[in-house]
Request: fold
Amino acid sequence: MSAQSSPSGKPIERYDVVVVGAGFAGMYMLHKLRGQGFSARVYEQGDGVGGTWYWNRYPGARCDVESMQYSYSFSDELQREWDWSERYAPQPEILKYANHVADRFDLRRDIQFDTSVVSAAFDERASTWSVTLSGGATVIAKFVVLATGCLSNARMPEIKGLDGFKGKVYHTGHWPHETVDFTGQRVGVIGTGSSGIQLVPVIAEQASHLTVFQRTANFAIPARNAALTEQERQSVRSRYPEIRHFARVESRNGIYTEMPDRGALDDGDSDRRAKYEARWNHGGLTFMSVYNNLALDQTANDTAADFVREKIAEIVENPETAKQLQPNNHPIGSKRICVDTEYFAAFNRPNVTLVDIKSSPIEEITVNAVRTGGRDHEVDALVLATGFDAMTGSVAKIELRGRNGQTLNQKWAEGPRTYLGLMSAGFPNLFVITGPGSPSVLSNMIVSIEQHVDWIADCVAYVRDRGLHAIEASTDAEDKWVAHVNEVAATTLYPQANSWYMGANVPGKPRIFMPYIGGVGPYRQICNDVATKGYEGFVMTGKEQPRKMAAS
Ligand code: NA7
Reply:
């Protein structure tokens, strides 16, 4: 960091890199940049590290990727010393891990908490970003990295009367830091995505009555969560080189699992059923990896979807409720598949009611009830598990002004456009971690975060070491990449669902399939090839002698 005076006499801080967000992406970005000799400053709006795991503290919140895989791999010491207690760690443990990483790598001294980045403007003459913080201060950086998270902008539903509700209202993505005890209360939950599905069984244990308002039934696979034994942890650790390599290079979604070599229709009924049964009993997201064509072929997909629908009917005792809980309007996996613990069984409890708000939408929220179909469902507290303005929402909150004064929101008005999900033409020296156009939310996020951080750090070092001023995506490369992302998505069943992958959960948001579905391994190869070819598809400007950046 170096400082000089602003016209007002206050010193302007200057950094090589400003990183926005201190979640898993921002923390590793900082560590990596330091290792390469850059000065970096991280701004985080919360008062602690952890990002998603800092905000999403709702009861039952836990990871849906196994923790021994949903963890950093960049430090062998770290992955050997940290003991995950359960197969899928609960949110408090993941947050503890994030704090451990921050301490272990001494990250906090370069993180400024309780500070949002409000805007950033590119100075074309100086090839630097002028970054304005909440509170009004401005800092200058050569590069800006958006580590703002894909599911960070919690979305409040627009429901008539919500503001006038007299009880407490909680959003899963903005859960209070103190424990919320629903004992003896009548609670309403709106939303049955991953968050709703995780919290329903837990709140059902506390509430005097729980009413679940469901707009779309979702597929959920049992987690089969359990405590990890020391022997299990050691077994994974001893195979880490193979597991991590597979996740990065060979897998499609960043998860170590068997790669299916056949399609669902290549097996007869009984073999197929046995395979689904085995994977159902194993639990977790890898249910979709039983066959290699479940995301591609409707008939193949139907076999898996029918299996799960049958399971729901077996678990849920009331046939009418079971029918309502059976998803019937999208292929299995085309919305993020949920991983649950006793979600469907919760509806067998006498204190849990399911209300179908697809056929009878919520008319309004009164002072003490949710009104649907002319009937008031009285509640003392409301939990909104209504999701996020995903992938672009947290970026859109910052006014980012690139070349010619154009804002990123203007450029992305018809949907996000990036080259490789990393940069957007017209916005030099601005990177996004796990941005739209990269595998991102379709993958084990930590695998994708590490890949992007490593790539960005190398890229920034390349620019520095050659004394260049700026790097940016070319419009041509970006257009081709956007077309490719769409092309690949169109070969799958994903665009058939009204999912947040498509922006379909936010009224007015352009419908475009945002993540890159070509697979984590192939995507990494593409990014590596681009770098090896001297950052093909990127435009570099300004050639001069290598120099030390911020300090110069
Ligand atoms: P999701 O998956 O976006 O789920 C949100 C849920 O809320 C979903 O069931 C929505 O129904 C429902 N919803 C949203 N708005 C409304 C309104 N206005 N009225 C009624 N119901 C509504 O968010 P989550 O937090 O559960 O999960 C996000 C990701 O976090 C998840 O995929 C994991 O990766 C972790 P809809 O389906 O739109 O009909």
In short: The two ends are 10 Å apart (CA to CA). Residues 544-552 have pLDDT under 50 and may be disordered.
